[in-house]
Design a protein that fits this description.
Length: 524
């Protein structure tokens, strides 16, 4: 047995679930299913393989994988021996992957065969000794990488041959368990080092906030497991000892998604607001015999109309919203179902595992209702940026983690996120919050989606530009129509002074708007 399993060590929850209910369903993808006993054994086997390949306490194991059972096994195997699992966005280019691998210097890279070619750019300075390939045959020349690579091995062969005897490793809960890389939209991506205790605290806080107590509730994990959203989802199920259905993100059209939920009796599902709108549009979805008992949305605020449709389509099913960031191990605020509509303009109240403040430049709390920067403190907060002292120091000015988000608390203690600090538009010395202008514009019937960005202006330095996806592409709104629409609710200096009509808005794999890309495209 693992000696003296610390309740703040992630691996302890998997061990206890396997001991308590070894035959209970744990993870599945497609037609493959593992019980908790089987899942725990696979984690042990892979952990032993990693150790035999030279992975030690504090080392890194990089992962370039699709959502799968093997992905989940890797996420637990590295921390089981005191190493850190570092999942990499599998949609990155070979050059982007090479940068992250060089930054990590992992002893082992675990990669799906489909993504193997993306390792061709890693260099001799990356520190990689072994590449473990999931799926497909493995040849010694399977990847053209630096001479320092000692072996390219088969995941399946290694795990099948490994010893399954329980490991005995003492893990310090304060040490890192995962390194998640930020999107890098404002420069090179940074690796957020997140600890065992922080992720456990985050997980327990979210389970409480979302009233998740049953180990029989199947959760569909269709968000990327290289993001905190996917990682958090699998951790929450493991802590509960509940089953998880893993699929590739975006792999299903809305009608196929509904079929999947019906086939497997999915209880908990997370989607972006846009995806929920598409699900609500599926013909006959309300009449389907679905087991859904908890709906979750995130990544962006839905229009009230989408939320109303969710409640109409799935009557009586509670709808939750979560807000957070990579550097806080995920969720910091949660919006409970009873406030889903009345407080839809907020991200909810802070969950119990983290302290949330709204402060001015002097790090003093601003009065209720006034805007300041959102800062965090508590176990889930990032320990450091991997090998980036400058970024770490800047982020923790005054001992609090500075999120870069601007917000305010309302009189009921709900947090309203106003804008990103770097996205605030300063026009003629006046602060303009893009989200406020967007909220006014999106109520125009000809506007389906809108983003407001600052563009250079010869007199005012910068002014707002609206980038609009029209409801009807053949009848887009004019700039004058939009200005007239917002005039009653916005000060004159806040109205957009220019307009771009777009067919769609760029988003990342989690559905978040790539605001910086939009701004860059509008800079000419």
């Amino acid at each position: 047995m693992i000696e003296a399993v610390d309740p703040l060590v992630i691996d302890g929850y998997l061990v206890r679930a396997a001991e308590r209910s070894p035959n209970h369903p744990a993870v599945s993808d497609g037609d493959r299913h593992l019980t908790y006993g089987e899942f725990d054994e696979r984690v042990t086997r892979l952990a032993r393989v990693l150790a035999e390949l030279g992975v030690g306490y504090g080392d890194r194991v990089a992962m370039l994988m699709d959502n799968s059972i093997e992905n989940a096994i890797c996420l637990f195997a590295a921390p089981r021996i005191g190493a850190m699992a570092a999942p990499i966005n599998n949609r990155l280019t070979a050059a982007e992957v090479a940068y992250i691998v060089a930054d990590l210097e992992p002893v082992v890279v675990v990669v799906d065969a489909a993504h193997l070619a993306k390792l061709d750019r890693i260099g001799s300075n990356a520190g990689v000794e072994h590449i473990m390939v999931v799926g497909g045959g493995v040849r010694s020349d399977a990847v053209s990488v630096a001479p320092a690579i000692r072996s390219v091995v088969s995941y399946e062969e290694c795990v099948a041959a490994a010893n399954s005897d329980r490991l005995v490793v003492n893990i310090d809960a304060r040490d890192g368990a995962f390194i998640l890389y930020t999107s890098g939209t404002t420069g090179k991506p940074k690796g957020a080092v997140l600890g065992h205790a922080g992720y456990v605290a985050n997980t327990l806080g979210i389970l409480h906030a979302m009233r998740m107590t049953s180990r029989d509730e199947l959760r569909h994990i269709g968000v990327p497991m290289f993001h905190s959203g996917g990682l958090n989802s699998i951790l929450q199920q493991i802590v509960l000892g509940a089953p998880a259905l893993i699929t590739e993100p975006g792999g299903y059209a809305a009608d196929a998604l509904v079929d999947l939920w019906a086939k497997h009796s999915v209880f908990t599902a997370f989607l972006t607001p846009t995806q929920w709108g598409q699900v609500c549009d599926v013909p006959g979805v309300r009449e389907r015999n679905l087991a859904l008992g908890r709906l979750i949305w995130g990544t962006s605020k839905p229009p009230a109309s989408v939320l109303a449709r969710m409640q109409e389509t799935f009557p009586g099913v509670p709808v939750y919203a979560n807000f957070g960031m990579t550097e806080t191990s995920g969720t910091t605020c949660s919006l409970a179902p009873e406030y889903a509509l009345s407080k839809i303009h907020t991200v909810g109240r802070p969950v119990g595992h983290i302290q949330v403040r709204v402060v001015g430049p002097d790090l003093r709390d601003v009065p209720t209702g006034e805007i300041g920067e959102i800062v965090y403190q508590g176990p889930p907060v990032v320990r450091e940026y991997w090998r980036n002292k400058k970024a770490t120091t800047e982020a923790f000015t005054g001992g609090w983690f500075h999120s870069g988000d601007l917000g305010r608390f309302d009189e009921d203690g709900f947090l309203i996120v106003v804008d990103r600090l770097k996205d605030m538009i300063v026009s003629g010395g006046e602060n303009i919050y893009a989200s406020e202008v967007e909220a006014a514009l999106v109520s125009h019937p000809k506007v389906a989606e809108v983003v407001v960005v600052g563009v250079p202006h010869p007199k005012w330095v910068e002014t707002p530009r609206a980038v609009v996806v029209p409801t009807d592409p053949d009848d887009p709104p004019s700039l004058e129509e939009l200005q007239d629409h917002v005039r009653p609710v916005l000060a004159s200096y806040k109205k957009p002074t220019s307009l771009t009509i777009a067919s769609s808005l760029p988003r990342n794999t989690m559905g978040k708007l790539l605001r910086n890309k939009i701004k860059d495209d509008q800079s000419v």
